[in-house]
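step 3/5: co-fold with inosinic acid
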Amino acid sequence: MKPKKQERLYTRREIQRKVKELARAISSDYHGQDLVMIGVLNGAFIFLADLARYLAIPVQLDFVRLASYGSQSTSQGEIRLTKSFELPLSGKHILIVEDIVDTGLTLAFLRKMIEKENPQSIRICALIDKKERREIPLEVDYVGFPIPSGFIVGYGLDFNEQYRSLPALYSLKR
Ligand code: IMP
Ligand code: MG
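step 4/5: write tokens
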């Protein structure tokens, strides 16, 4: 089911091309290193599934799930880890894989949690970066699509748990 009032931002083909490009950069940067990619559930599940399959290097995969109190569409206040990573991260190169970075609060929190495990490095890969909306400094090392504003759905991203299964990316109109 397509969003009712929507504007298509990126087609399935454009997304796949971009994800391959990211996978190429990641494969070259982490060549010969112990890489653990940590996907942030639920939003990143489709992006991570495609990204991991385009990699030319071995990788270990793990997942976390985070919840924030407040509204559905923006993170506010307290963030909690409701499912933690399970692989040992000490001495590993960590790449956090997220669907979209908005205020930055969620990933700043996750980054701090992972830092406590003494990994060798931590980087962030996000399909979409809404950089203009940042409330806390947070750099995204691998960005698919920089987008200034709007609420994005499809390709794993939801509004009230809808639209995740769409193969393209849409901006929801209100
Ligand atoms: P942040 O903590 O404000 O950076 O928010 C990140 C989380 O909010 C993402 O992981 C998404 O779950 C959700 N989010 C923020 N903007 C959007 C959007 O445009 N579409 C779908 N989810 C979003
Ligand atoms: Mg998310």
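step 5/5: annotate
The pocket of magnesium ion (ligand 2) is lined by residues 40, 43, 99 (CB under 6 Å).
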